[in-house]
Amino acid sequence: MGLIVYYSSRSENTHRFIAKLGLRAARIPPSGADAFHIREPFVLVVPTYSGDGGKGAVPKQVIRFLNDAENRGHIRGVIAAGNSNFGETYGLAGDVISQKCQVPYLYRFELLGTEADVANVKHGMELFWTREQL
């Protein structure tokens, strides 16, 4: 199965979700993201910041990471965390990254995710990486 690359803020919500998955993962560092390199295909898991009308939804560290052409060249899909209280901007970081990187938006979950979210993502990743290898 492929790699999950993720960013988690100080709240650690995304980190806790990734830990529940038990899959191979690499965390984008809070500082020095522009020096963090991935040299294999990955699915990105990213939290959504509320921002102003959606502006600023993607964490700056993720933007710096994806500004590296090699990193961006290995992204195969995106999963976003969010808060449904944000309304229309719930999970918006996934929409932004999907459009800019031309990859599928695979899933969105709220805050820490539920056990159903964990099961859905685990199963979805297995199917996704199986199809990706065909």
UniProtKB/TrEMBL annotation:
Name listed for the protein in its UniProt record: Protein NrdI
Biological role: Probably involved in ribonucleotide reductase function.
Gene3D superfamilies documented for this protein: 3.40.50.360
Any GO MF annotation of the entry: FMN binding
A Pfam match: Flavodoxin_NdrI
Entry's family note: Belongs to the NrdI family.
Gene: nrdI
InterPro entries: Flavoprotein-like_sf, RNR_Ib_NrdI_bac, RNR_NrdI
Protein source organism: Rhizobium vallis
Superkingdom of source: Bacteria
